[in-house]
UniProtKB/TrEMBL annotation:
Protein name (record): Acyl-CoA dehydrogenase family protein
Alphabetically ordered keywords of this record: FAD, Flavoprotein, Oxidoreductase
Family to which the UniProt record says this protein belongs: Belongs to the acyl-CoA dehydrogenase family.
Annotated ranges, domain Acyl-CoA dehydrogenase/oxidase N-terminal: 39-124
Cofactor: FAD
First and last residue of the signal peptide: none
Occurrences of domain Acyl-CoA dehydrogenase/oxidase C-terminal (ranges): 260-394
SUPFAM superfamilies found in the cross-reference section: Acyl-CoA dehydrogenase C-terminal domain-like, Acyl-CoA dehydrogenase NM domain-like
Gene3D superfamilies referenced in this protein's UniProt entry, alphabetically: Acyl-CoA dehydrogenase/oxidase, N-terminal domain, Butyryl-CoA Dehydrogenase, subunit A, domain 3
Length: 398
């Protein structure tokens, strides 16, 4: 990634008369005001929180996650009809709302708070962004419109975690993809799937139509986190459409990686905030020796550590989203930082939440354990904190 050149390096040199060469910074130049509260964001947050408060409490989320789809079709329809979640980041000239990633991140924070199983991150954000990367007209309009309206759901099978071995054959208008995907989010129920497949010129990005793939070719996997279902998928000459050929696929995948890190960090911020509220409420009500547990100094310190984790993750995630809105090309480093900070924080806070709830926190049915399973499941699917830190080091040349 190219970075703007700065003035000659002011650090001491070897005394040579020639000026020091210009050096490049790998981080964006963004004013501190990008982290200031935004009235529109807070208005949106209230609307989303009210909707989820009425339709996605813990019991409703559990029932939806255990249902046939793995999420609530009714809530998914409501989020698309009332909030247009699939069209939020779609440019206005493509029929969307064009509100940008900052507003999308607000919705993802609230989705994380509620631990929604609905395919917001995978389909409405990443699936839609992948499809919009295709040249105009190369993906049938019915698929694009169906995806942005939420009538169709896209699975995601990109990156090393997908364990995919796929090949595309045919020409434009008659492409098919065959092979196997070892692990795909929403693979058992999705209508479409974004995949990387070998083609004549190299690896290319495709949108596979799963609507005619037999149920027997989709094998649900046993996973720790029931709110993000996964499946192995076998494809035999499945109809497909080219999103990006070998010459452009790498750039599109890199863009999807940046967006994924940002919106996942936003989800984790919402999870941490919810766990802090849950734990603080419990410790304020539970008494020991005639006093609320929250009044003991050691408990106060542990809650303070959770608050620090929340503020670190929130600052990093919101900064990354704000930088992306200003200049997507300079968001790679802040996105990696946000992913590293938020992934580490959400796992630490999830374990702390279980511990501070005592014996009840160790039961599988308790909300604390659902947050723990989501945090650990995300680490397995999207990468651990040390992998994100390694990318930060690589970008900084460390």
């Amino acid at each position: 990634m190219d970075h703007p050149a700065l003035a000659p390096d002011p650090r001491p040199g070897d005394g040579a008369s020639a000026p020091s060469p210009a050096w490049h910074q790998p981080w964006p130049e963004a004013d501190a005001s990008v982290l200031a509260p935004v009235a529109e964001h807070e208005d949106l947050r209230k609307v989303v929180r009210d909707i989820l408060g009425a339709h996605a409490d813990h019991e409703q989320v559990r029932r939806a996650a255990d249902g046939p789809l793995g999420y609530s079709a009714e809530l998914w329809k409501l989020l698309n009809d009332e909030m247009s979640v699939g069209a939020m980041a779609v440019p206005e000239d493509r029929g969307g709302l064009g509100v940008g990633l900052g507003m999308v991140a607000v919705v993802l924070e609230e989705a994380g708070r509620a631990l929604l199983p609905e395919p917001l991150l995978v389909s409405a954000v990443l699936g839609v962004r992948a499809v919009l990367a295709a040249p105009l007209g190369s993906i049938p309009g019915e698929l694009v419109d169906g995806l942005t309206a939420g009538h169709l759901v896209a699975a995601l099978a990109t990156g090393p975690g997908a364990d995919a071995s796929l090949a595309a054959t045919g020409t434009d208008g008659a492409l098919t993809v065959s092979g196997r995907v070892g692990r795909a989010l929403l693979g058992a129920t999705a209508d479409l799937m974004v995949v990387v497949a070998d083609s004549a010129g190299g690896e290319a990005l495709h949108l596979v139509d799963l609507r005619h793939v037999r149920e027997a070719e989709r094998r649900p996997l046993e996973v720790l986190d029931h709110t993000r279902r996964q499946a192995a998928v076998e494809l035999v000459a499945a109809p497909a459409h080219l999103i990006a050929g070998p010459e452009h696929a790498g750039a599109v995948l890199a863009d999807l990686d940046v967006v994924r890190r940002i919106v996942l960090a936003a989800e984790h911020v919402g999870m941490i905030e919810a766990m802090l509220d849950l734990t603080r409420t419990y410790l304020g009500q539970r008494e020991q020796f005639g006093r609320p547990l929250a009044s003991f100094q050691v408990i106060k310190h542990r809650l303070a550590d959770v608050l620090v984790d929340l503020e670190r993750a929130r600052s990093a995630a919101r900064y990354a989203a704000a930088v992306f809105v200003q200049d997507p090309g300079s968001a790679e480093l802040p996105a990696a930082v946000a992913a590293a900070v938020a992934t580490e924080a959400v796992i630490r806070v999830a374990h702390e939440t279980v511990q501070l709830h005592g014996g009840i926190g160790f039961t599988w049915e308790h909300p604390a354990h659902y947050y723990l399973r989501r945090a650990l499941g995300d680490e397995a699917v999207f990468g651990p904190a040390h992998a994100h830190r390694a990318l930060v080091a690589e970008l900084l040349g460390v």
